[in-house]
Design brief:
about 325 residues, alpha/beta, Quinone Oxidoreductase, Chain A, domain 1, Rossmann fold, seven-stranded mixed beta sheet, six-stranded parallel beta sheet, about 25% strand
Length: about 325
């Protein structure tokens, strides 16, 4: 017999107001599953793309949300790694995190060490794993590299900046406001460019003596892509990992030949596709958080029923990240 709970349900694509809290029934966990009483769910730009219909990856009606932190309430048959009372974090590609309780596959769950706040763990889990993959695998950062981080005051951006700095790179960041510029500097950027008001590539070339950057990490998309491309050094790599300002238009690949440059469009999932890679990545991230190496704050907390307000704040580019208290 299931348990009564609540979740945010989307029945049509649209603005923040399409997210409505509704009663749901959560089943008991089956073989290899966990019943989780959730404590905090993260609010990501991916959730906005899903809600608006930019990404048609959630079948409607459906419950959005990719990641959360909670307490295991019951375990299904065959689960050996977890028991009731364990605190876990997870990322679920089939969505469903905007809920007070849910069932997930035990293969998705990772233990959360004591001493890390529920909201912090939830808000920074996906972002932290993404940033680690970008600087350690997509374009490994080495000491002495010059790196451009677009939107370095944003959620993933500030982690990319910090991690690149910790790995010995000289980091140049961009920001869309003075507030975000302060965050970027605190995250380790030696120089910060106001990308809405300044010529990014011209400033990058001035900072690097005309050499350009070895890597440009760009999650903004349409508004910044050309500036990132023009900022690359010879054999530079433009890592286009998001499109907060919209998708980039098609472009002629032969343009990359001038600098023998490359462009990639990575997603996190292949980098945590195995249980071993997920556990290793999450362990490294939580150790960095516990050590105080990463600049982790929360921009705001909202009750689950206020998910629309959290989306509106994120879309207004308010300083996040935001979490939903479940």
């Amino acid at each position: 017999m299931g348990i009564a709970s609540e979740a945010i349900v989307i029945r049509a694509y649209g603005g923040p107001d399409v997210m409505v809290i509704e009663p749901i029934e959560v089943p008991q966990p089956g073989p290899g599953e966990l019943l989780v009483r959730q404590r905090a769910a993260s609010v990501n730009f991916h959730d906005i793309y899903v809600r608006s219909g930019s990404y048609r990856t959630l079948d409607l009606p459906g419950i959005p949300g990719l990641e959360a932190v909670g307490i295991v309430e019951a375990v299904g048959e065959g689960v050996a790694d977890f028991q009731p009372g364990d605190r876990i974090a997870y990322i679920a590609r089939n969505y469903g995190a905007y809920a007070r309780a849910r069932v997930i596959s035990a293969s998705l769950a990772v233990p959360v060490p004591a001493g890390i706040d529920d909201g912090v763990a939830s808000a920074w889990f996906l972002k932290g794993l993404t940033a680690q993959a970008l600087v350690d695998e997509v374009e490994p950062v080495r000491p002495g590299m010059a790196v451009l981080v677009q939107a370095a005051g944003g959620g993933v951006g500030q982690l990319v900046a910090r991690m690149a700095s910790l790995r010995g790179a000289r980091v140049i960041g961009t920001a869309g406001s003075p507030e975000k510029a302060d965050i970027a500097r605190a995250a380790g950027c030696e120089d910060v460019i106001a990308y809405r008001d300044e010529d990014v590539s011209a400033r990058v070339m001035a900072f690097t003596g005309g050499a350009g950057v070895d890597a440009a990490y760009d999650a903004v998309g349409a508004d910044t892509f050309e500036g990132s491309l023009a900022s690359l050094a010879v054999k530079g790599h433009l890592v286009h990992y998001g499109q907060a300002s919209g998708p980039i238009p098609p472009f002629d690949l032969s343009r990359l030949g001038v600098r023998s440059a490359k462009v990639s469009r990575p997603f996190l999932w292949p980098y945590i596709a195995t249980r071993e890679s997920l556990l290793a990545a999450s362990d490294a991230l939580f150790k960095a958080i516990a050590a105080g190496d990463l600049p982790l704050t929360l921009g705001g907390r909202f009750d689950l029923a206020e998910a629309g307000k959290a989306h509106a704040a994120l879309e207004a580019r308010a300083a996040g990240p935001f979490v939903l208290d479940c």
